[in-house]
């Protein structure tokens, strides 16, 4: 099974989704990318994933255009912008899915409130990716 997860910056949601899918289906090939990749993975995304035992500390944002020639069983968009601007793939794509999540990086509040939002989104992604992996295994 080959899964590509897309969002705008490949900074938070897609990186967390990739981490969860790697945990739930270690035999799958999973990658994540952005339509307009950020400079780095959000530090809070790394922290909250580490809290659940998933290490994304060495992850780097990547461009979707690195992957458009490759075949994918699923291309999953996790933000509305990526869903609307998803490029055409030259490689075969089995199914395209949109499983949207709130952007924790857009949340405004105190440091503790922002961290709580990252945890909430992390947990939501984990629940939905667990169900997704169980469904298609």
Question: What percentage of residues falls in helices of 4 or more residues?
Answer: 25-40%
Overall geometry comes to globular
> Which series of helices and strands comes N to C?
EHEHEHEH
Number of helices: 4
What is the end-to-end distance?
Answer: 9 Å
Average of pLDDT: 94
CA radius of gyration = 14 Å
Biggest sheet details:
4 strands, parallel
Molecular structure report:
- The chain has 137 residues and is α/β, with parallel strands linked by helices.
- It contains 4 helices and 4 strands; from the N terminus they run E-H-E-H-E-H-E-H.
- It starts with a strand and ends with a helix.
- The model has no long low-confidence stretch (mean pLDDT 94).
List key phrases describing it.
single chain; 137 residues; 4 helices; globular
Write a brief caption for the model.
With 137 residues, the chain is of the alpha/beta class. Helix content is 39%, strand content 18%.
Would you spell out the secondary-structure blueprint of this structure?
Elements: E1 2-7, H1 13-24, E2 29-34, H2 43-51, E3 72-77, H3 80-85, E4 93-98, H4 111-136
Parallel strand pairs: 1-2, 1-3, 3-4
């Amino acid at each position: 099974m080959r899964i590509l997860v897309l969002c705008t910056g490949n900074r938070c949601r897609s990186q967390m989704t990739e981490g969860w899918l790697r945990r739930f289906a270690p035999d799958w090939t999973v990658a994540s990318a952005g339509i307009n990749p950020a400079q780095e993975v959000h530090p809070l995304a790394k922290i909250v994933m580490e809290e659940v035992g998933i290490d994304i500390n060495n992850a780097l944002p990547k461009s979707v255009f690195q992957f458009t020639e490759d075949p994918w069983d699923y291309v999953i968009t996790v933000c509305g912008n990526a869903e609307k601007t998803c490029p055409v793939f030259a490689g075969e794509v089995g199914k395209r899915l949109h499983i949207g999540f709130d952007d924790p990086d857009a949340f405004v509040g105190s440091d503790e409130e922002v961290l709580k939002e990252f945890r909430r989104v992390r947990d939501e992604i984990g629940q939905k990716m667990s169900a997704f992996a169980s469904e298609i295994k």
